[in-house]
Design goal:
Blueprint (H helix, E strand, L loop, with lengths): L10 H15 L4 E5 L7 H9 L19 H4 L5 E8 L8 H5 L5 E2 L8 H20 L4 E4 L7 H7 L4 E2 L5 E2 L7 E8 L19 H4 L6 E3 L2 E2 L5 H7 L6 H4 L5 E3 L3 H4 L26 H5 L3 H7 L10 H14 L4 H13 L2 H13 L3
Parallel strand pairs: 3-10
Antiparallel strand pairs: 1-2, 2-7, 4-7, 5-6, 8-9
Helix pairs in contact: 1-5, 13-15, 14-15
InterPro entries: 4Fe4S_Fe-S-bd, 4Fe4S_Fe_S_CS, QueG, QueG_DUF1730
EC number: 1.17.99.6
Subcellular location: Cytoplasm
C-alpha cells in the first residue's frame, strides 16, 4: 500500500525526479532507479568462486543466493536507488606518485575519512528526506558492507557499464567514484539499463596490471590483486609478487589509471575525502617508523584501519625493498628488525636482500 502522498498516478514519477535532485544536494553525482534482475549473474559468480578467485575472502561464499535477491536482504524491496559519489581530490597526484619509489602509494579512495561512514550518512539523509515528504516507507541503506551486487545493480540502472577491469565505468566520470544503494518498497519508475559495454577492443587494464591479476576480461583473480594482498590478505605476501607491488602499500589504482575513460574523471568537493596526515605524499621510511599507537591514532576513522598494524608494516617493508637502494632505506629496514613480528621480519629480510643485488 502506497503512502497517501502518492495517491495520484504522477506522484511516483515526480517523487523519482525529486529523489534525483535531492541526491545531488546531498553530494552524490548521480542517482538512478532500478528493479534489479540479478539471477543472470548467479552462474558466473559461482564459477568465479569454484575457481578460487575470491582467494581468502571466504565471506563472499556466504549468504547463499541472497545477493541475487534484494528482497531477501530487505523484505519488501521493489526498487533499488543506485547512487555514486566522486572521491578523487583535485590536488592529489596519481601516476607521478607511483613513479616516485621512495614515496608511499595509497589507493586514492583511502586517503581521507572512511567512505562507508560518509556515504551511509548521506544515504540515510536522503531516505529520511523522502520520508519527510511522503511519510513512512520501508528502506535500507547499503555501502559495500553486505552481499549486494552494487556494480551490476548500477549497470542495470543505467549508471554506466562494468568494464573489463570489473569496475563500473561511466562516460561522465570514468571510475573514480564510490557506490551506495537504498533498497526501498516504493514502486518508483525505473531508468533504462546500460545496453552496451563501451570498452571495445581496449585491453589496457588487463595488460598493464602489475601482477597480471586478470584471468580474462571481466574476471579478476583476487589472489594476485595488489588491493587484496595489501588489505584483505593475512600472512606472507607471495614472494613472486612482491617485486611487482612497487610502492603500493594499501590498495591499487592501476587499472583505473590506464583506462581511457579516466580522462573524464570528476574531482570531489567533499572535505572528508581530502588526504589526512600527508598520506598522499608521505615517505615510506616515515610511515614505516610509525609505532602501533601512532598508526591507530592516524588511521582513526580511516579505511586503512582495515589492514591492521602488522600488515601495514608488512606492506611497507615490501615497498622499501622495491625503493631506491640507499643508506637511509637500509638503515630503516634494519632498525625495523628489532621491534617487528615474525611475519614483518620475513618481509624485511626479503627487502634487505633486494638491496644486496
Amino acid at each position: 500500500m502506497l503512502p497517501p502522498a502518492l495517491s495520484h498516478p504522477d506522484d511516483l514519477t515526480n517523487l523519482a525526479n525529486q529523489i534525483k535532485h535531492w541526491a545531488v544536494e546531498f553530494g552524490f553525482a548521480d542517482a538512478r532507479i532500478v528493479a534489479p534482475d540479478l539471477e543472470q549473474y548467479k552462474e558466473g559468480f559461482k564459477k568465479w568462486l569454484d575457481n578460487g578467485y575470491h582467494a581468502g575472502m571466504d565471506y563472499l561464499a556466504n549468504h547463499g543466493d541472497m545477493r541475487f535477491h534484494p528482497e531477501q536482504l530487505h523484505a519488501g524491496t521493489r526498487r533499488v536507488i543506485s547512487l555514486r559519489m566522486h572521491y578523487l581530490p583535485q590536488s592529489v597526484e596519481t601516476v607521478e606518485r607511483l613513479k616516485t619509489k621512495e614515496k608511499a602509494y595509497i589507493a586514492r579512495y583511502a586517503l581521507g575519512r572512511d567512505y562507508h561512514k560518509l556515504i551511509r550518512k548521506r544515504l540515510n539523509q536522503l531516505a529520511k528526506k523522502i520520508q519527510e515528504v511522503i511519510g513512512d516507507h520501508g528502506y535500507r541503506a547499503f555501502v559495500d558492507s553486505a552481499p549486494v551486487l552494487e556494480r551490476q545493480i548500477a549497470e542495470q540502472a543505467g549508471m554506466g557499464w562494468i568494464g573489463k577491469n570489473t569496475l563500473l565505468l561511466t562516460p561522465k566520470a570514468g571510475s573514480w567514484f564510490l557506490l551506495g544503494e537504498i533498497f526501498t518498497n516504493l514502486p518508483l519508475p525505473v531508468d533504462q539499463p546500460t545496453r552496451t559495454r563501451h570498452c571495445g577492443s581496449c585491453s589496457a587494464c588487463l595488460t598493464q596490471c602489475p601482477t597480471d591479476a586478470f584471468v580474462e576480461p571481466w574476471v579478476l583473480d583476487a589472489g594476485k590483486c595488489i588491493s587484496y594482498l595489501t588489505i584483505e590478505h593475512k600472512g606472507p605476501i607471495p614472494v613472486e609478487l612482491r617485486s611487482k607491488m612497487g610502492n603500493r602499500i594499501f590498495g591499487c589504482d592501476d587499472c583505473q589509471l590506464v583506462c581511457p575513460w579516466t580522462k573524464f574523471a570528476k574531482h570531489t568537493e567533499e572535505d572528508d575525502f581530502q588526504p589526512r596526515h600527508d598520506l598522499d605524499s608521505e615517505d615510506l621510511i616515515t610511515l614505516f617508523a610509525w609505532d602501533e599507537e601512532t598508526f591507530l591514532k592516524n588511521t582513526e576513522g580511516s579505511p586503512i584501519r582495515r589492514t591492521g598494524y602488522e600488515n601495514w608494516r608488512r606492506n611497507i617493508a615490501v615497498a622499501l625493498g622495491n625503493a631506491p637502494s640507499n643508506k637511509e632505506t637500509i638503515d630503516a629496514l634494519k632498525k625495523g628488525l628489532v621491534s617487528s613480528s615474525e611475519l614483518v621480519n620475513e618481509h624485511i629480510h626479503w627487502a634487505l636482500k633486494q638491496h644486496q643485488q
